[in-house]
Design a protein that fits this description.
mainly alpha, 11 helices
Length: 262
Amino acid sequence: MIFIPLERVVPLYAGQKVMRKRWLNDVFYLFFNSIPIWIGFVLLVGSLLVASRFVVPEGLGNIVRAQPIWLQTIEVVLVADTGVYLAHRAFHAIPFLWKFHAIHHSIEEMDWLAAHRVHPVDQIVTMTVSLLPIYALGFSSTAIAIHTLIYHGQALLIHSNTRIEFGPFKWVLASPAFHHWHHANERQAYDKNFAAQLPFIDALAGTLYMPERMPKAYGVDDPVPPLYHQQLVYPFKRAGSAAGNQLRGYAAVGTENPESEA
């Protein structure tokens, strides 16, 4: 109701269709991917929150909740997006984690719906790293709810096929230009723009990249399969294949030199 008309009125790529490539696959993500994500998130965060009681001072939550809601909301955004940055950067830097994150980067035509193509493991880990400190510190449910609304709205916007510009605020708030460069399949843009909401985190960390032009190509060179069920098992199949190849390599070495054990 919002983003499809918006992408028709101010499109970044006017020739891109609403039902673009892999559109139905991402619709499936939209309606069904939240089920495994929330089950995994609740189980993981619930267990970690129990453990956090031994670390977080008793009464800290009362002090945090005594602050005005507007200040709590700003603090939640700062803390949560710092967590997103750290988790997101890890998913790019660690080869095993990249296998999960490559599914999100396999998007070749950016639009609002593309925001939903995320492997459950990717989303569960990122949500846990970003939101666990928020729950552990005892922020109010109102501040968390406001952040959640802002976060999800901004996630749709920064993936959308729109040419909306933020002017000087582009260095403060994540825009389509900022995040489109994160998805660009251009060497100079690799491993840039990890924050979800606050580009100045990338500026401070030295990972900001936002030239005046927009990307020419999106996606990855990884052989990511096209369908939801295939994408769910894709990281595990690759890990299994790598382990199998390694074991076969060890076996081959052993057979080439049978006297080595003696």
